[in-house]
TrEMBL record:
InterPro entries: BUG, Bug_dom1, TAT_signal. SUPFAM superfamilies: Periplasmic binding protein-like II. This is Tripartite tricarboxylate transporter substrate binding protein. Residues 1-34 form the signal peptide. Coiled coil: none annotated. Belongs to the UPF0065 (bug) family. Keywords: Signal.
Length: 330
């Protein structure tokens, strides 16, 4: 008899649970039964860290929305401004949302005549996840921890440089935060993206910098870069031996990459609540959790109210950092 005719008790239970879950989702997401898709604009190119985060959960999110199609729409350009304009200018009907990162709140500090307000012109839905940021250095750098780095920079402020993925990016301002906290100086070398920065740090042209874990995980495991500290509030589960800045005596040096789902201004509370519930369902699926862990991300799923306050506080934080770093909108 063909194998496919046999149905185990476990299979029956799984199918029953799936049916219950599907009924629950259909009941809680009546709008999801429409034929229209939900489009998520990403103000970044395909292959970026945020792109991987969005696509990891797209199928699970579609299922959570009762089968409604989920479309990931990459709209890079102008450092992310173009794609963000698409989010804030969309109709507030829940059909167009977006994934944004720390750079979203940095725009006013680096972009002149910005056509939108990153706080007032969006509807926050959830901080989906965080990406650990690490303060790293070339493999033969003479410092092995933050205290030694601070001592080197104080002794020879014009000797060492640090790189970033570009002026005013989260990686730039995260490094500037360390310099401002320690009263030290280091020459900034901006790059057009993380890839060239990592390559030159491995090659010895760049001394140190702050980089997100997902971008350098393989380089760390291969010993091509040296980690001086994590900038996270707690040790990283997958790298427990990396000391945090807090553990090294720098309690105020905490900065993480984050990714949030937002919509245009004016989304109804029902739409916000429904999408937040769908995101929770999607990002708590084992396959999605596994994918996020492999990327080095931590699923957070903070609720809408928290997300609104957090994004506003991040806007203020990076505004101060940018001004202290001497950045002016260009």
């Amino acid at each position: 008899m063909p194998a496919h005719r046999f149905i185990t008790r476990r299979t029956l239970v799984q199918r029953s649970l799936a049916g219950v879950a599907g009924l629950w989702l259909a009941t809680h997401f009546p709008q999801a039964q429409a034929n229209t898709a939900v489009r998520f604009i990403l103000p970044l190119s395909a292959g970026s860290g945020v792109d991987a985060i969005a696509r990891s959960a797209s199928q699970a999110l579609s299922e959570a929305l009762g089968g409604k199609a989920v479309v990931v729409d990459n709209q890079p350009g102008a450092g992310g401004v173009i794609g963000t304009q698409g989010i804030v200018r969309a109709a507030p009907d829940g059909a167009t949302l977006g994934f944004v990162s720390n750079n979203h709140v940095i725009f006013p500090s680096v972009v002149k005549n910005l056509s939108f307000d990153p706080v007032a012109d969006i509807t926050p839905i959830s901080i989906v996840c965080t990406s650990p940021l690490l303060l790293v250095a070339r493999a033969d750098f003479p410092a092995n921890n933050l205290q030694e780095l601070q001592a080197l920079l104080k002794k020879s402020p014009d000797t060492y440089n640090f790189g970033s993925s570009g002026n005013g990016t989260i990686l730039h301002l995260a490094a500037e935060q360390f310099l401002q906290l320690t009263g030290t100086q280091s020459t900034h070398v901006p790059y057009r993206g993380t890839g060239p920065l990592v390559a030159d740090m491995i090659g010895g042209q760049v001394d140190w910098g702050v980089i997100a874990l997902p971008a350098i995980r393989g380089q760390l495991e291969a010993g091509r870069l040296k980690v001086l500290a994590s900038c996270t509030p707690e040790p990283i589960a997958s790298f427990p031996n990396i000391p945090t800045a807090i553990q090294q005596g720098y309690p105020d040096y905490v900065v993480e990459g984050w990714v949030a789902v937002v919509g245009p201004k004016g989304l109804s509370q029902d739409t916000v609540d429904q999408m937040y519930t769908a995101l929770k369902h999607a990002y708590q699926q084992p396959s999605v959790m596994e994918a996020m862990d492999k990327q080095g991300n931590t699923v957070t799923l903070h609720p809408p109210a928290y997300t609104r306050e957090y994004i506003a506080s991040e806007r203020q934080k990076y505004d101060v950092l940018a001004k202290n770093a001497g950045l002016t909108p260009q």
